[in-house]
Specification:
Five copies of one chain form a homopentamer.
Chain A: E1 9-12, E2 15-18, H1 29-37, E3 42-50, H2 52-55, H3 59-75, E4 81-86, E5 96-102, H4 105-117, E6 124-133, H5 145-152, E7 160-168, H6 170-174, H7 177-191, E8 198-204, E9 213-219, H8 222-233, E10 241-244, E11 249-254, H9 256-264
Antiparallel strand pairs in A: 1-2, 3-5, 3-6, 4-5, 4-11, 7-9, 7-10, 7-11, 8-9
Helix pairs in contact in A: 3-9, 7-8
């Protein structure tokens, strides 16, 4: 996620972890880029809590289980783009988060079924599952050209991540498209100052879970994330948020290997 | 559910599962069709979570328990139409869902009592039970003829399923019938573009649980499900939804045998 | 509850259950009738969930515990009218429900203390307790004579039961009595078509729990229960329901012996 | 609480309980009266649930633990007025309640720390803690003299107790004092008919927990408690209750010895 | 926190606790002062509940685990200012609270990861995590000079602490800055009488959790805390609190050593 991953070995508590490189069996970088950038891709956010008992298992048992968990995840990388996040220590809702992009929701479901059927999975409880999809930008085509250009500039990423699901009120959906466009232009103007330091991605989830949107943020500067959300609270469109967060998930981007090393401790 | 079921054998982890065909003791296809299409039939949705301990039982014990669970379900098929869904991996509320249609609510209750009294049942917790009934269409008789004809076209089914319970507000029920008819006609117009790809079924549940309606959707295209619910969010009738979802259950249609095979892993 | 109870013996799983008749030590039928019909009687609804562990106890241990549970209940029948309901399979809130009528709330409390102190009680968790009392009809004296006569006709009972607690809004209580009377007359007119097939009883609970009323329904026709609650949703008085249900408990009337036999399985 | 406590011995299940008298080490009756009647005293309400496992401990172990629990409570009586209530059987929130009055909140905290550090405390879960303080009457000085006199008449106590926490809305606090005075006078007029049979005490809790007030009631007549709360629901001030109850705790006054005897069963 | 900490030894239940002094490896007092007073510092509030099982571990095991917990905390003091609070006995949400100030949120996350990975951590459940940051005062520059001077007077601290998270409504953020300034000036005027006895600190948390602010209070006089929050409830700005508390955490300031000694009992 944050640059190329290198093949390394880690010896932790006497147990060897073979750290993964983006190998031949994974979705190629090009495929991953497509899944992460194109419209019509499904995104599933699955947050898990690790049960108390797991931490009391023998270290070797835990390592074996984590390696099997890793193998399950790797096996699904040919069809899916899978990102891992550590929530523990920054969120009270769960310990870690998987973000899964795929062309078919049932592939994401199969990954999660396989994770939960693995020995480690028997110590996991699924605290939150959010489903959404990427779509072509709804309002951007109506924005001024300068704004469109600004939006094309690249954004910096990680290590901090926030996931904030949103439900709009009935009034929002009842508004005519041009009024929503005007409000979204004001929204975008308020957000632009943070475009460089906070990376955003939007998922549409109406009908796929209890929210209308899943908003995803990555940044190295949590203060800019704060300033961005504050700026977005001040525009008229914010009055149409019936639910904003609840939960707000805050965490850090982590590779699968780092996640396993952290959990293995 | 999705075409004829064939008699096959599956050997999983050394344990034989005799996969069911629609056998002589089951409700005939005709009976099932009647239960699924006629008014005055009760529908119960029961979502279960499997406790942590179960996954740690010996594989053979689990297989024996699942076979007994299957026998319980099959035994009730003479009176009930029973459909099974896998929620795990797409919903955080439960692992699987039973949808039960019957002429009497107490037959559905007896099935669930028998499931919970079976050895597998001792590892299940009932997370959600919704009760409703099918009724003659309330508003369709007042719709224009063209719309009525459109509504008779067949809809494609599965493998994705969504169950969204709805509670209307007091204003809705206080409206005169003709105003509700006009709004439901607008609602139906908004839904028609998705009639072919998203199959819908409505259950009335006022007084039988905490909701007024249970809406059931099946589709091969979750993006069309999303577009349908979004379109329905924009009509005036949507302003009278006091609660929409909470929970929204998303899952996949599965045969009982597939469900057992998945859970047995 | 549904006609006379006969003295029978049941052998289940090799364990003898002595099924109760309305015996000499119980409240006489006359006393029970008074408790169930007179004003100034307290009603307590206590819904219990049976913990997972209980189902894994040895069959004989469970039977012994259930017989002791039964003895506890029978012992209190001299002062209390105690009805039992099976919620499992129709409600997700609890497995069974006790409805207790008595002249003193502390007698009901003592019954529940004794149940919970019995061996079976150690596997029960109290999910919901609602307390109310019967009162003289508030509004009926102001109704037209014809309506009063209609309300005196008998209602059919069971086997289905629904318990729906209600909290009114502040506006309701602020209304003058004559306006509330007019609305309750409209409410009663809407309910009368279901008077024969749905038996109702009202408990006042303001100050005794978090609701204002506990409404209790018994019927053989859940579709009529549905139609009744729907009809009541359409009258002006319904706009003053701040909370209606949450939970709605749906279940079936059961004798204590049937309950024990069902739980013993 | 309900008259003098006598020194008695109770033999229960072969285990001797030495029942307490108001002994030399306790706060004198005068001190207790001051704590219960003067302004500026802190009141903490702590409701506990006893975990399932405790009920399965050996009878002697439980008796030993309860005696230790009793010793902890008695040890704190020199600084604190401690009352005990049995909620089990009348409330679903908890099994028993401690009401603690003291000059310092940290003394109440220390009592609860000591209870939870005792062997019995390891089987308790704290379900609810409410903190408040007594203050000089806010509005009474502005009431007519007749009403002031009426409020000085004694009230009868127990055995029933209700604890209802209340949160006012923002409009209430924004009202000028004279308007609040007028509304509280109407409130008091509505309450006076129940002054004799329902004893009330008010705790102010803004900033000390999530409520503004903790209202405490004691009565021998739950029907009068009901009538009182109903009467208070009808005055204008009631429209400013943003939250009323949730939870409403109903229980019975019990001595520490009775509580221990009940729990020991 | 409350004056210099001395190096002492405590023998509790036969186990030696080496009580910490502010040692060489800790952040210097100057660093700590900066973290606690400067803008742009992140504050994380993490509240933990200790599971039932822990209390039943052998005393020596618990002492060893607590010493390891202490070592983890001490190790992070070079980068972080870490304060500890005892909630048990005053709040029902959790047993203890860590307040962590640091320049980077990931340092706070690492501390919590290390705590949870320690043997004691396996018996902890994270009940609440709030994240915020200190910022330059928003409105103070616009206040009259007299008020600015008053705000510079020192405030007394502990032993009582309250943490109250706040969410503002959409109207608040939509107001122009001068109107918010006027309201905050009224707010500050109402708070000034308690400036001396109640120490306050404000954290901005929009986008970092589900709240907009975390308000932190320390006092020796809980009655003044009550009066302060009551005074703040009466100003116009209070009408823009969509959520105030829920939870309100009340507890006492404690050193790490005192916390360990209390928990070790």
């Amino acid at each position: 996620m944050t640059g190329p991953r290198h093949m390394v070995h880690s010896v932790f508590a006497g147990v060897l972890f073979v750290l993964s490189a983006a190998g031949a069996s994974s979705a190629s970088a090009a495929d991953r880029d497509k899944l992460l950038s194109e419209p019509g891709v499904y995104g599933t956010f699955a947050a898990f809590r690790i049960n108390d008992e797991w931490g009391r298992l023998d270290q070797k048992v835990r390592s074996t289980q984590l390696n099997a968990f890793k193998a399950v995840v790797e096996r699904h990388r040919d069809k899916l783009a899978i990102d891992t996040y550590l929530l523990r220590g920054l969120s009270d809702r769960a310990d870690f988060l998987l973000r899964i992009h795929g062309a078919e929701l049932k592939d994401s479901q199969q990954l999660l079924l396989d994770v939960l059927a693995s020995p480690f999975g028997r110590y996991l409880s699924g605290e939150l599952i959010l489903n959404g999809m990427s779509k072509k930008a709804n309002y951007v085509p109506g924005f001024p050209d300068g704004m469109k250009a600004d939006l094309k500039a690249p954004s910096e990423s990680g290590p901090y991540v926030a996931v904030i699901p949103i439900r709009k009120d009935a009034d929002w959906w009842a508004l005519p498209q041009d009024q929503r466009l005007a409000m979204m232009q004001e929204h975008t103007e308020a957000a632009l100052p943070y475009h460089k330091t906070v990376k955003r991605k939007l998922y549409h989830s109406t009908g796929l879970d209890d929210f209308d949107f899943i908003t995803y943020f990555e940044t190295a500067k949590p203060d800019d994330l704060h300033s961005l959300i504050l700026a977005l609270s001040k525009v008229k469109e914010a009055r149409h948020n019936r639910r904003f967060g609840h939960p707000t998930l805050l965490g850090t981007v982590t590779t699968l290997d780092q996640l396993i090393e952290t959990l293995g401790q």
